[in-house]
């Protein structure tokens, strides 16, 4: 038999998944590994999906998505984030933000291209870049509060740089960029041909008002592809609905990749999404408020334990430095699970730049979070006393 694709062979199963498999062996553990809101999908959205099934809306839709949903996405992201993309030419409905990232990168990349990824990073970017024959280049953000700066961006751009991936708010660190920070990056990119893929899947869980999309900065729209979706804003991870907002000439190429990868997103999920975008403009607000309070609790507790943490601006993750305990990310996470029965994700799941950190998700009830933090505190105190 011929060899399988060496690139797929080289790709590792996500470190998050590997660790969640281990956690399953500890049923009494409190898990802070979860990457989705703990709230259910809003009832009105579920009902719209049930009605779609009843009405027989179970056939293929246009590749780009239902026209009514594209109109709704145009209005929704226009009102919320000041984005202006033509509903028929510049918006595509995808199978989650993951698929939106996939078709964006596949439409842009050629073998040998370099893609800049601020690290530590969400593990979903690198494999797509590798599968396209391109090269992921991590920008080390650890000394800059986990954000890429004009200086580090400039230092990493080469002749081969095709794309900068820019998540805000980011996973696993929760940091988000201010307008001034984005303007500094735009000033560097202005004289280059580099495209920007802004992953804004957590934008509705941005704790500060006034989330700024990079595409709205003067001169940046033509090079920017915006990734959105309902997984986090409407607690719809399993429905698989994402959106790409991109200039027409890029969207026109992406739709071919979409067509030959999935034909279209699930029709039932699209009807649910139509309801979410038409009548669920405020659905994220209670989650955002709870996660903001949880964020404050986590930062306070970690600081009291003596662990350094960059204060997250959004999403539902904190990424503290545990290297002061003398343990690697893996050793810390495994011992914490085994001895204290708390599950967190080892930082090295987010590229080598995450070594020495752990990711904890605070997408859970306050009481559970409080109990888990108390156990982490006791574990850290024991470790520190031993060291
Ligand atoms: C930064 C980031 N982008 C994209 C995704 C994927 O989202 P979706 O479930 O819509 O594919 C995630 C999921 O955790 C994420 O954290």
Automatic annotation (TrEMBL):
Pfam families: Aminotran_1_2. Keywords: Aminotransferase, Pyridoxal phosphate, Transferase. It is an enzyme of class 2 (transferase). Its cofactor is pyridoxal 5'-phosphate. GO terms for molecular function: transaminase activity. Its EC number is 2.6.1.-. Residues 28-376 form the Aminotransferase class I/classII large domain. It comes from the Bacteria. The keyword Transferase applies. Belongs to the class-I pyridoxal-phosphate-dependent aminotransferase family. This is Aminotransferase. It comes from Alicyclobacillus fastidiosus. The lineage of its organism: Bacteria, Bacillati, Bacillota, Bacilli, Bacillales.
């Amino acid at each position: 038999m011929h060899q399988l694709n060496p690139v797929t062979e080289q790709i590792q199963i996500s470190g998050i998944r590997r660790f969640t498999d281990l956690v399953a062996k500890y049923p009494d553990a409190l898990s802070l590994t979860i990457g989705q809101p703990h709230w259910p999908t809003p009832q009105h959205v579920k009902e719209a999906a049930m009605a779609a099934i009843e009405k027989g809306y179970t056939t293929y839709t246009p590749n780009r998505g239902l026209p009514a949903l594209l109109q709704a996405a145009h209005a929704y992201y226009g009102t919320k984030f000041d984005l202006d993309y033509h509903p028929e030419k510049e918006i595509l409905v995808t199978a989650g933000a993951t698929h939106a990232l996939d078709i964006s990168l596949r439409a842009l990349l050629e073998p040998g291209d370099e893609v800049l990824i601020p690290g530590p990073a969400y593990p979903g970017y690198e494999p797509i870049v590798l599968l396209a024959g391109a090269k992921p280049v991590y920008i080390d953000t650890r000394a800059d509060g986990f954000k890429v700066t004009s200086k580090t961006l400039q230092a990493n751009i080469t002749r081969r740089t095709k794309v900068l991936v820019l998540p805000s708010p980011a996973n696993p660190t929760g940091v988000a960029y201010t307008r001034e920070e984005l303007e500094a990056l735009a000033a560097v990119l202005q004289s280059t041909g580099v495209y920007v893929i802004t992953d804004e899947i957590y934008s509705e869980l941005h704790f500060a008002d006034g989330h700024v999309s990079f595409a709205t900065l003067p001169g940046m729209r033509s090079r920017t592809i915006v990734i959105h979706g309902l997984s986090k804003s409407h607690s719809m991870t399993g429905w698989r609905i994402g959106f790409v907002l991109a200039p027409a000439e890029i969207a026109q190429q992406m739709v071919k990749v979409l067509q030959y990868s999935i034909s279209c997103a699930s029709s039932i999920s699209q009807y649910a999404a139509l309801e979410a975008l038409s009548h669920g403009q405020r659905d994220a607000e209670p989650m955002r408020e709870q996660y903001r309070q949880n964020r404050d609790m986590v930062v306070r507790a970690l600081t009291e334990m003596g662990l350094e943490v960059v204060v997250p601006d959004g999403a539902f993750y904190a990424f503290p430095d545990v290297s002061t305990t003398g343990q690697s990310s893996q050793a810390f996470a495994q011992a914490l699970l085994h001895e204290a029965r708390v599950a967190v994700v080892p930082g090295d799941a987010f590229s080598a730049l995450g070594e020495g950190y752990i990711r904890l998700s605070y997408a859970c009830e306050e009481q559970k979070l409080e109990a888990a933090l108390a156990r982490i505190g006791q574990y850290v105190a024991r470790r520190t006393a031993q060291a």
